[in-house]
Amino acid sequence: MVPSPNSLNKPLFPECINWVLDHQNPDGSWGILHDHQLVMKATLLSTLACVLTLKRWNIGHDHMSKALSFIKSNIASATDENQRSPVGFDIIFPGMIEYAKDLNLNLPLASMNVDALVQKKELELRSCCSNSEGGKAYLAYVSEGIGKLQDWDMVMQYQRKNGSLFSSPSTTAVAFMHRNDDGCFNYLRSILQKFHSSVPAIYPLDIYARLHMVDSLQKLGIDRHFKDEIRSVLDETYRCWMQGEENIFLDASTCAMAFRMLRVEGYDVSSDQLTQFSEDLFPNCLGGHLKDFGASLELFKASQIIIYPDEFILENINSWTSRFLNHGLSGGSVHSDRTERLVKQEAVNAFEFPYNSTLERLSNKRALESYSGDIVRISKTTYACLNFGHQDFLELAVEDFNTLQCIHRKELKELEKWVIENKLDKLKFARQKLAYCYFSAAATLTSPELCDARLSWAKNGVLTTVVDDFFDVGGSEEELVNLIQLVEKWDASGEAGYCSKEVEIIFLALHSTICEIGEKALPWQGRSVTRNVIDIWLALLESMRKEAEWLKNKVVPSLDEYMENGYVSFALGPIVLPTLYFVGPKLPEEIIGNCEYQKLFKLMSTSGRLLNDTRTFDRESSEGKLNALSLYLISAGGKLSKEEATEAMKGDVDRTRRELLRLVLQENSTIPRACKDLFWKMSCVVHLFYRKDDGFTSHELMNSAKALFELPMVLDELLNKRNTKEIS
Known about the structure:
It is a single chain. The chain is 63% helix and 1% strand. The chain is mainly alpha-helical. The longest helix is centred in the middle third of the chain and has 31 residues, at 391-421. Residues 151-341 form the Terpene synthase N-terminal domain.
């Protein structure tokens, strides 16, 4: 539409006119061909824009004739409230109709339709409070529909360093027509130098598009195949972050996604950069004025990555986005550049499985089942980017999922055989929780080559359950002492003597399993770790014996004394710590036992102990047992109710978990990241298991485990499911 400065009757960018002539759709429209009528408003907008362009330069009469016929046949969609509306449609489309009159273009529209559209424009302009910063940004963004009445001084306040307005070529072009600004011209010219005759709806989009692609690869569980490429994307994003790149910080979705992904990968990024998206300030930006559901969802996900006690901005964002998203889920339609059904389902998943309760394998399964592959977005009009989704991603993810599932089945059969060989199924007092234990391993240790790690995790998980039940209900005081003495002497010959068949079964299972772990760890570590694993088990047994003595002698320890023992007796040590030897890095003896190692273990176990004790309070109280919650109530001297004490302990869990995440993510560390990740993965397992009940009694969790092991993904079914879902 921009005229040449040398002649108002000639276009400044004639190559764009040629593109319009060459890219009309067979039905007479322009725009992305989409198989759903609910994006018809965007198609009408694109088509009318092209008609006005051809009329402006008096060419393409046959094209115009076909396009006007298309508009006439589909104009009813323009006032259909059930249609998805591009941003600013109620201002821009009527504005184009008014401009058509100036060009003496006779549109095949009934006066009733025109009057309705103009009335909607007037209502939209009145409802958009130009005194608010968000309202001003919106009016500037939709300048194409306001034309001569626009306050161009106000509009130019939104010009970016690259010369654009909102990274929108159309807004920038109309501003250039009215202000002849060099920055606008240079931006428009740079686009054509890059894309030749075609112009994207948004430019630049590369940072957001690449981050979205990385996010998709991670959700689908195939990111390990693209480690170098992902690192390159994140390194470049971090460089842009540190340089204050506008394309990150002026867009809520991009900024939130960049913050979350960079922080999780260990880059040093400050949450202060998100201050502009606080509850008070977010309405001042374009996305805030539009009440962008997708941007709010990205901010919500970013707000969960709190690692410092004073990150109040993240708490603020978490609070308001939670309310906003819940309101959208319980109400009607929401504004988003993606299909409403998809973005709402993503929000449901974000609430149901927050970052601190996410198990990779379950997340991968959900992503596969909901993967739309829809590369189309809607802003002022529809646009597409292959980075948003591709069937190749889905095909690779399905193949990868099924390959790993076969490995899981094989490992589970091996574990079932191990249980029988060690006679653990003969222990009538013990809960049989092999499936749960292996599920927690398989759902978090997802790389195929981590077989030894998964088996170590699962076997020790089974053994800790057996020993816990033995100390709780299955064993006498003599048997408990006997078991500890046997582990201390570490003699499987039987000369030390077993006081019962149960003690013999448990000790021999411990002995054979720990020795096996030591043998398997030797090539990984280049040294013997058997003694370390024995010591880990001894620490657990001693902590359990102390709790048994407290119960027998009716001792009421202080809360601090209980927790100092309780984080060990929660029994995560034998599961997590030996597994560290099987995830890749070598761990020298001096690392085992250093303060960082011990702190990671204590933080992980403390949050688990507190979660467990709040969930099992009623049952344990009825059995006459003390736990952290009952001791918290005792220490309060009757000043707190159970509900108040539970809420206070929840705060302790949050603080402990955040400190754990900070240690895991920090770069300057003596412990390799692959090892630190295990502590966080187990924390996620515990948070998921105790999300609604005491973990081991969850039927929902058991069903998830069965589906993970037994139900393969079928590509054709996923594609058919995707293709038959309606766009809402």
